[in-house]
Write a structure and sequence with these properties.
The protein is mainly alpha-helical. It has helices spanning about 15-30, 40-55, 60-70, 75-85, 120-205, and strands at about 35, 95-100, 110-115. The chain has a domain at about 15-120: 50s Ribosomal Protein L17, Chain: A, CATH 3.90.1030. It has a three-stranded antiparallel β-sheet. The longest helix is centred in the C-terminal third of the chain and has 86 residues, at about 120-205. The relative contact order is 0.08.
Length: about 210
């Protein structure tokens, strides 16, 4: 049964377990990632994350509390300077556990536990992915905005051609209208000339 088992004792006494977790926390702060078993990594996560949260506010009291757990001045200094500067904006979840298979001797589940903000490859890949998505969206918007004026120009061009064609069609009609009065005038002049000749001939006959 599992009654009252709130923490994993890891098969060790309390003093041995505290010393082991303290040493593992020092190694994690110094090297930023360590390989261990999944059970120890889960226990270390519960041990070290509250210490990282305390390191966010650099006070004498917090340094003394953290030192009582780590028992290493160099680790305390690095935690309050380098690690705290990296995780200042993160509200929790400072460590990541990545399973790496099983151990050859006893088939124990192995993993790598690391500080999230110090994995530059993983974080840079995420940032690039986000940027590329934004670029794709921006590129689509740019192409759409560029296509819209092009479409407007194409639409305006046929309209201009249609106007020119109508003008070209109206031009002969206007010329014909202008020629029609001139032809009527010439006809009227011819008729007046013929009438004048007839009058002259009639006078001569009389």
């Amino acid at each position: 049964m599992r009654h009252g088992k709130k923490i994993n004792h890891l098969g060790r006494t309390a003093s041995h377990r505290k010393a082991m977790l303290s040493n593992m926390a020092n190694s994690l702060i110094e090297h930023k990632r360590i390989n261990t078993t999944v059970a120890k990594a889960k226990a270390l996560k519960l041990f070290v994350e509250p210490l990282i949260t305390k390191a966010k506010s650099d006070t004498t009291h917090n340094r003394r509390v953290v030192f009582s757990y780590l028992r290493n001045k160099n680790s305390v200094t690095e935690l309050f300077r380098e690690v705290a500067a990296k995780v200042g904006d993160r509200p929790g979840g400072y460590t990541r556990i990545i399973k790496t298979g099983t151990r050859l001797g006893d088939n124990a589940e192995m993993c790598m536990i690391e500080l999230v903000d110090f994995n530059e490859i993983y974080t840079n890949a995420k940032k690039e992915a986000k940027k590329s998505r934004r670029r794709r969206g921006g590129a689509k918007k740019e192409t759409a905005s560029a296509a819209a004026p092009a479409a407007e120009v194409k639409e305006e061009a046929p309209a201009a051609e249609a106007v020119e064609e109508t003008k070209a069609e109206e031009a002969p009609v206007e010329e014909a209208k202008a020629e029609a009065p001139a032809a009527e005038e010439t006809k009227a002049e011819d008729t007046t000339a013929e009438e004048a000749k007839e009058d002259d001939e009639s006078k001569k006959g009389e």
